[in-house]
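pinging the channel bc i need a second pair of eyes. not urgent but kinda urgent?? the chain im working w is below, pasted from the shared doc
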Amino acid sequence: MKILDAAGAQLPASINVCDNAPQVFTASVQASNATYQWFLNGNPISGATTATYTATQPGTYTIKVTILGNSCPGEATVTIVGGTSPTVQNTTLTACYASGNAVFNLPSAQASISTTPGATFSYYVNQADANAGNANTIPTPATYSSPGGQTVYVLVKNGFCSKVAQLQLVKAPQMTASIVPPTVLTCANSQITLDASASVYPAGSTFNWTTTGGNIVSGGTTLTPVIDAPGTYTLTITKNYQPGNVNCTAVANVTVTGNSAPPTPVLTASKMHICNGESVTLTASGGVSYNWTGLPGTGNTQTVSPTTTTTYTVTAVGANGCVSQTPATITIQVSEPFTAQNAVLHKCYQPDWLMTLRKRRVRLLLQQELLSRIMSIRQMPMLPTTTLLQHLPHIHHRVIRRSMCL
């Protein structure tokens, strides 16, 4: 007595069945006067009284056949070992662009192919080998080289149950990060916008700017960030592909320079000392325009007419728009004018040697005059003292007048 499969082949004592797939069992002995009873795990199956039975669950199945007139029934047994097939789905795996073949990490797609716990994966170039589950697998699936546009067949096994999934290999498009050369940062142009809008990238890409030494004011996740400091700026464009969490990137960097040095003004004057009412020209240098304290205009010269000593101050603005940190100063000294008029100075002509002689003569004449007056006084009657004193000024006066212009 044997149990046959649907094709009429004798079944072994145990068979593996996945997902409770129906199994048609047939008793090998068939006779019109025979009776049949199928058992599951030793218990008769209700209504299973024909030569054929379809099993739909794991267990031990027994068929007992009794032929009329034969007290010894024949029987046979087969055991179904149940299993569950893994859940699988076809998916796509992307590798980043490379000239020629790209490198694919096939196992990185496993989570998208099957989520069955404990499942195992084997990779095949052709489907026939995958269906057979033979040894013609891809030897290094983590570094599989392919130009893309290829299908790889994945045999997923859960115990003795298995299924085959298809994995499409796609090579990502080429990405290029490109940044327009930036202008120079100056005081007049203290913020600039970097421009990477000419970059080439697939839809869904993200952008991220980083800097060494610089400063990103805004737009750090766009193609046009605003920056305000010299330094090196790096743009990374990233496109993430699933499954496998594959990140393809393109990188570019640019150096931003700055010219923020303030000018050093110099201030000179046509004259440093003037009289009240005069004018002086002040000249500034060291910049392209100037801010004069208390004076109009931004040119490099000023004509001023201070009435008192005055200090003038100027700051310079350089070609880069930067203003001098320290102003230049200059002080103009102002003096009040004096009033002058013509005058005549008279002096008697007397050469030096003649002057000496005349001085001696004057001295002699004075002595003689004085002596003569004294003698004349003596010859006069006795005069009071007051009278004598009255005559002395006349003597002195005459002597002085005679000494003039000698």
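so The radius of gyration is 64 Å. and DSSP finds four helices and 29 strands in the chain. — does that match what u expected or am i reading it wrong
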